[in-house]
Write a structure and sequence with these properties.
Layout (H helix, E strand, L loop, with lengths): L13 H43 L1 E7 L3 H14 L3 E7 L6 H7 L2 E5 L2 H6 L16 H4 L5 E6 L2 E6 H6 L8 H11 L5 E5 L4 H30 L3 H4 L16 H14 L11 H9 L3 E7 H4 L4 H4 L2 E4 L12 E2 L2 E6 L8 H4 L4 H11 L13 H12 L4 E2 L2 H6 L3 H17 L11
Parallel strand pairs: 1-2, 1-3, 6-7, 9-11
Antiparallel strand pairs: 3-10, 4-10, 5-7, 5-8
């Protein structure tokens, strides 16, 4: 009888059991490690985003050489656009360092000039469409600096004298000289300004350079002074950019024109030392035919005097070149790539904000259709819009905005030349 043999599976040994358990432990550990990595990565991202968000809550705004009134208005509107923490800092000339400012601040507000030029390479392009309400002359130049409000170095004509002499506004430099010659019979100083003020003197000199050669010649003058901040080293450089012999002129020729005016009685002989007190004293007795002054100063003068003046831009020598107008503008720069601060600039292009700023500050708007304080505010806008090169910074700001001592030095050198000469040859020919 055959016995059935019963087969049984071999028993697992201890080593085999340990190996299996080890695999399970390794798998479990791997899962735990992966979970930790995922959680850690998520936590890291969350912390990173949290830190970035926390940093974005601090909006740092810098002001440079703005009046208390303008600063307070900017603060008011910026604060309406952002609920996080905002810090406003007034930077002095001694503290101005373009690189440090760009690193520390998100927005920068100032009059357009050399401070803005030095920050340009650190600034972000303006948000698309932000200048859509502005005239073309402003819009095409607003790449990084957003114009907010406009001043204007204007010619104020004494209306009664113009009427008595049966004259109209001169349209070019030739007509301007003829106008001033006729005004000798009606006023003590046909032309006058507060030439003792460095900004006014430089704005006038720069304005006549622009009037003769257009914006290209004006930019040439600015570049010359930046490279060589000395009258002796710049006054004989050719400023015309047309390449035509008949258009040739230098800064010396402009200064000699003023010296000839002094000799011919077209301007007070010491006009380059004149003060605002002198301006108002002459206006009180109706003895200025044409006054050169910024609108911002015009606003501080007695109404009984300015109400008798009509405003126009400085006449030009030729219309065959591209012209701008000497119109200081408050601008805003964006020094951060965080778009959450864009609204702090957009608000200044809103028509209601433009209207409110004009009503408060009494200067000109940058928008085409904003309501304005008065006719003078409106004139600024239309004069700037009519010039293809738009609003140009005055010479003092364009070159010396971050160096008052250098600005005063140049102004004094010009005054010394106007007083002592030598007188150059100056001749105007009509075009």
């Amino acid at each position: 009888m055959n016995k059935e043999t019963k087969k049984t599976a071999p028993k697992k040994g201890k080593n085999s059991e340990k190996k299996s358990n080890k695999k399970k432990i390794n798998k479990t550990a791997l899962i735990i490690i992966l979970c930790c990595l995922v959680v850690g990565l998520g936590t890291g991202l969350t912390v990173g985003l949290s830190i970035k968000k926390e940093k974005a809550k601090n909006l740092d705004v810098a002001f440079y050489k703005l009046s208390d009134l303008i600063k307070s208005e900017i603060e008011k509107y910026v604060s309406q656009t952002y609920s996080g923490k905002i810090t406003f800092t007034d930077i002095s000339e001694e503290q101005f360092d373009a690189r440090k400012i760009a690193r520390k601040y998100d927005l920068f507000f100032s009059w357009n000039g050399s401070a803005v030029s030095k920050l340009d390479k650190y600034a972000e392009p303006l948000p698309e469409g932000i200048t859509s309400q502005m005239p073309t002359s402003l819009r095409k130049k607003a790449k990084k600096a957003l114009p907010i409000i406009l001043d204007h170095y204007e010619f104020d004509y004494y209306r009664k004298a113009m009427k008595d002499a049966e004259l109209n506004f001169p349209q070019n430099i030739v007509e301007l000289e003829e106008y001033l010659k006729k005004m000798r019979s009606y006023t003590f100083t046909p032309f006058f300004c507060a030439g003792g003020n460095d900004d006014t003197l430089l704005a006038l000199v720069g304005g006549f350079v622009e009037a003769f050669g257009g914006a290209p010649s004006y930019n040439e003058l600015i570049n010359n002074f930046i490279k060589r901040p000395s009258l002796a080293q710049t006054m004989d450089f050719e400023l015309s950019t047309s390449g035509k012999e008949q258009d040739s002129f230098t800064l010396r020729a402009i200064l000699d024109m003023f010296r000839n005016w002094q000799e011919e009685g077209l301007v007070h002989p010491n006009w380059y030392r004149g003060t605002q007190v002198d301006v108002e004293a002459f206006m009180d007795v109706k003895q200025i035919a044409i006054l050169f002054t910024p609108l911002s100063v015009h606003r501080t003068m007695p109404y009984k005097n300015v109400s008798e003046m009509d405003v126009d831009r400085m006449p030009v020598f030729s219309f065959n070149t591209a012209h701008g107008v000497i119109a200081p503008s408050v601008v805003g720069l964006k020094l951060t790539d965080q778009n959450i601060f864009d609204d702090a600039l957009y608000i200044f292009t809103d028509d209601s904000t433009q209207e409110a700023l004009c009503m408060k500050i009494h200067l000109g708007p940058v928008n085409r259709n904003s309501r304005v304080y008065d006719r003078q505010s409106s004139d600024v806008r239309f004069i700037v819009a009519a010039c293809s090169e738009g609003a140009l910074p005055p010479l003092g700001d364009a070159v010396f905005q971050t160096n008052e001592a250098a600005k005063h030095k140049i102004a004094e050198e010009i005054r010394n030349y106007l007083k002592n000469g030598p007188t150059g040859v100056y001749k105007v020919t009509a075009k």
